[in-house]
Amino acid sequence: MTGTCRVAAVDLGASSGRVMVAEVGAGRVELTEVHRFPNRPVRVGGTLHWDVLGLYAGVLDGLRAAGRLGPLDAIGIDSWAVDFGLLDDDGALLGNPVHYRDARHETAVADVHAVVGAEELYRVTGLQHLPFNTVFQLAALRGTARFGAARRLLLVPDLLAHWLTGAVGAEVTNASTTGLLDATTREWAEDLVDRLGLPWGLLPPIRQPGERLGELTAEVRAGTGLGAVPVIAVGSHDTASAVVGVPAASDRFAYVSCGTWSLVGVELDAPVLGEESRAAGFTNELGVDGTVRYLRNVMGLWLLQESLRTWAAAGLPADLAELLAAAARVPAFTAVVDPDDPRFLPPGDMPARIAEVCRGTGQTPPQSQAETVRCILDSLALAYRRTVRRAAELSGREVDVVHLVGGGARNTLLCRLTADVCGVPVLAGPVEAAALGNALVQARALGGVDGGLAELRSLLRATQEVVEYRPAAGASAAWDAAEARASG
Fold first, then answer.
1. What is the CA radius of gyration of the chain?
2. Is residue 442 part of a domain?
């Protein structure tokens, strides 16, 4: 293909999904949102599920909307990590995928570590220990009727691609979050899978970003009005696509992919698998073009989202713009917490939990909604500094600039605080970095653009809006003192 190509980027986040149409060619990247839909988890029988059929319906609605604007050359799908659907012998879905925030996954951690210790698991997979990693979810399912009937596991973006095309596979960037992939060979860890007693038939073939998965089935074509459009594997973990969408000019950058979660780290050529890295909680997720996303998960804007939900349910003001403006007037460091405190992980009354943690560290809890918002943003900025510095130290990668992409790039106060605390410029944007990275990988596979990540990022710098925030002078000492309070 030569000239401009039109692709649909399906980008599914933990709170909403969107379908974007991108027109990509030489010197041109234009992104148009054609459909956005909520992603609402559902609790049934004590278990928290994803409504994956509702998400698929939203994807089909989005593809219909995209088709009304003109023909598509390709489709790509990215989503959050670790969660999956199980298919039976007939290819039928065995229940809605369980949400990673469901508490049942933690019950299997000890069982897995009894077979493969935490240190060995890290040396093979390079994955930060999180109790909801796929390996623990699968272990928690053993002995259930659903697991006994399962013949194939498909991670969420692979499941949706399967329904669109019939193709079966596991795209490597998302597969690397399962705890079952060898971070060095970039293939399934055979010895690990065998020792855990997991059936090999569950794990589909590994696919690479840029591979053509298949064309839309006749049923999907009839339902959407589209033709035989190919679905192309992209960085199907949304953070992998978001990092492609970082408009970096050199390799001396850190990134904060800021949404419900904040993924904070650096881009490397090889994993860091030592014990010091494991103890520090860093993960080696695989990226596009053979890269490694060396990062740590920070709880992110989840704290703010849950606070807004709590206030709205109580009939209190919950306008984000007004609360951010009020928070900017609150003195810095009135209270700070560690965003990664496990008490903040489940859904529920977030302001009450923040107050409880503040009391436990000898601080006066926030006394207003604005103070709660300021506490959250100060605390996130501190977590970003802590993580960026540790990532640079452990990897040997020097950092001259922090790129903050995703929804958090709209949060002026958070961007300013991040620049102040990190002591280097913060370049905020693009907001839709994941959709852009998704679209660029598709366009390159189609021949609409050429080159590696450096060339794709150069195209982004030439076409996307980025706002620079420079650090304020003399802020470091106050942030150091606040860091000590956050850690109790």
1. 22
2. no
The residue-averaged pLDDT of 359-385 equals 97
Do 294 and 421 fall within a single domain?
A: yes
Q: Are residues 315 and 211 in the same domain?
A: no
Residue 35 belongs to a domain: yes
Residue 452 lies in a domain: no
> Distance (Å, rounded) from C-alpha 109 to C-alpha 89?
29
Tell me, yes or no, whether 357 and 411 share the same domain. yes
Q: Is the pLDDT of residue 387 over 80?
A: yes
Work out the pLDDT band at 106, boundaries 50, 70, 90. confident
Out of 102, 238, 341, 420, the active site residue is 238
Among left, alpha and beta (phi > 0; psi -120 to 50; other), residue 230 is: beta
For the chain, how many residues are written? 488
Confidence bin at 97 (pLDDT 50/70/90): very high
Q: Are residues 327 and 366 in the same domain?
A: yes
Give the tens place of pLDDT for each residue, 228-242.
999 999 999 999 999
Examine the domain organization and report whether 153 and 77 are in the same domain: yes
Q: 85: alpha, beta or left, given left = phi > 0 and alpha = psi -120 to 50?
A: beta
Whether 435 is covered by a domain: the verdict is no
Classify strands 74-78 and 47-49 as parallel, antiparallel or unpaired: unpaired
Give how many domains the chain has, as a whole number: 2
Helix axes 433-446, 453-463, angle to 10 degrees: 120
CATH number for the domain spanning 206: value is 3.30.420.40
Per-residue pLDDT tens digits for 439-457: 999 999 999 999 999 999 9
**Are 285 and 409 within one domain?**
yes
Sequence-distant (≥ 6) Cβ neighbours of residue 11 within 8 angstroms: 17, 18, 19, 20, 78, 79, 238, 241, 432, 434, 435, 438
Confidence at residue 141, expressed as pLDDT on a 0 to 100 scale = 94
Look at residues 345, 324, 339, 277 and name the one whose alpha carbon lies nearest to residue 130: 345
Domain of 58? Answer: 5-232
Q: Which amino acid is at 460?
A: L
- Quick check: 363 pLDDT over 60? yes
Say if residue 270 is in the same domain as residue 221: no
pLDDT at position 14 over 90: no
Do 14 and 141 lie in one domain? The reply is yes
**Average pLDDT in the 167-191 region?**
98
238 as an active site residue: the answer is yes
Query: What pTM was computed for the model?
Result: 0.93
What sections of 166-254 are H helices per DSSP? 172-175, 190-195, 218-224, 238-244
